[in-house]
Design goal:
about 350 residues, alpha/beta, Metallo-beta-lactamase, Chain A, Arc Repressor Mutant, subunit A, 2 domains, four-stranded mixed beta sheet, 13 strands, globular
Amino acid sequence: MSLPAIERFESNTGVRFYRIPSEAFPNFIVYSYVVLNAGVPTLLDTGSGYGNSNEQLLAGIQSLKADFGESLDVKDIRRILISHGHIDHFGGVAFMVEQTGAQVGIHEIDRRVLTNYEERVVVATKDLRVYLERAGVKQERLIPLMEMYGFSKKHVKSVMVDISLDEDQPLDGMEFIHTPGHCPGQVCIRLGDVLLSADHILARTTPHQAPESITRYTGLGHYLDALRKIERLDGIRLALGGHEEPVEDVYERINGIRASHQRKIERVLDAIRSAGHPITISDISKHMYPDRHSYDVLLALEEVGAHVEYLYEHGRLAVCNLDEVEREPNPALLYGIV
């Protein structure tokens, strides 16, 4: 696929941002950002490292001299910050460290994703399998879903982390806001009137949610709390996300995302009402997303699970097969409306 053009943005404090696209996975674009005039030249996110992603990112950085007049070489990048521990944003970090020798920073909750990547894959895979069984996914569907989950994770290797992105410790004018929910250690970065919003706020898509029962600090409750943190920030003129277009009215977009989640909550409740009896997360997912295929089935199961978990935590759903839960090691949970 053809990549979008590199774009230049500037904050009211004189910081320059270059948005560099790469193809994280087939037909899926992710953006990295070169940040200049905020301390040493800094790269935010490194793409997936999958396919041609590394070469595309490298070429994008190299083009800034000829296309934008920046006196910057790849080796001038002295700092690589990772917005959150999802592979489309950090998979290329080892490659970029090799190219630049730069220090690496990430929020402490996502630190082990980089420093102990192999361990993280094993633990996350196990937790996902337990969740899918509890969600009511049958064995014949579970095996291919687990295989799809692991397909893109073999090429990544662990790296050292040098910098902790801490809300209480600004760095060269960068203010870090911890915004968990989509990912445990996700941070947004404020520089003047520009917010690097990563995957917390996107222009068109409601960022994907997964239940906290798979990974701590994900889940809809954490995400909505983190949205409120950004909403309380005054003077954000522009948000630059990890995907899609820039967001010119971040406050209006927050309202739109919040409304989208409320609609999903109502759809979960409608699915249970329509069934007329307690049902599993898998049943709800098939009702809400009947036309999903391949990897999108897994994403739908996680998204539905996050909303079911939120409703359960807020006392609006109950587990209705407690005898089976007490008797069996990991049965599917049947949810009913309280």
